[in-house]
Amino acid sequence: MKRNILMSMAAIALAGGVAVAALETGGSARAASAAIEAAKRDCVVGERLDGYLGAVRGARLSGALKREVDAVNLRRKAAYGDLARQRGVTIETAAAVTAERLIERAPSGQCVQNNSGAWVRVP
């Protein structure tokens, strides 16, 4: 069973480049909103270990920004579901593997969760 999970994770990682590209743009061909990009740059919003965007250190999001984050996360959940079905893994596994790539690719200055779940600024 562990071997199957590892093989599935490897397959997801290979497919992850496509998933990451789609998720970096919010799951569509358009660029992420200016509000989301500014919030990421200001460490108000960051990439979580579970593959979704989250408020950094409990930051309070405006209603409009929260709606945008929620919309991005809904699109991500749908994308993770598609990837999970294609690879025969859970949505959580697909999301976690993709999260690793999103966190690795986060630009300098943005905040992401480290392996222990703490928010850190990318150097």
User: Strand fraction band?
Assistant: 5-15%
Structural shape:
globular
Any idea how many domains? Answer: 1
Order of helices and strands: HHEEHHEE
Mean pLDDT across residues: 84
**Number of alpha- plus pi-helical segments:** 4
Radius of gyration: 14 Å
Contiguous uncertain segments of 5+ residues = 2-12, 24-30
Strand order of the largest sheet: 1-2
Largest sheet: 2 strands, antiparallel
> What gap, in angstroms, lies between the N and C termini?
37 Å
Tell me the helix content.
55-70%
Using DSSP, what is the number of strands?
Answer: 4
Look at the helices and sheets and give the structural class: mainly alpha
What report would you give on this structure?
The protein is mainly alpha-helical. It has one domain. It has four helices and four strands. It has helices at 2-24, 34-41, 63-87, 91-104, and strands at 45-47, 53-55, 111-113, 119-121. The strands form two sheets. Strands 1-2 form a two-stranded antiparallel ribbon. Strands 3-4 form a two-stranded antiparallel sheet. A hairpin with a 5-residue loop joins strand 1 and strand 2. Helix 1 (2-24) packs across helix 3 (63-87) and helix 1 crosses helix 4. The longest helix is centred in the middle third of the chain and has 25 residues, at 63-87. The chain is globular, with a radius of gyration of 14 Å. The N and C termini lie far apart (37 Å).
Which terms would index this structure?
disordered N terminus, two-stranded antiparallel ribbon, 123 residues, two-stranded antiparallel sheet, 10% strand, mainly alpha, 4 helices
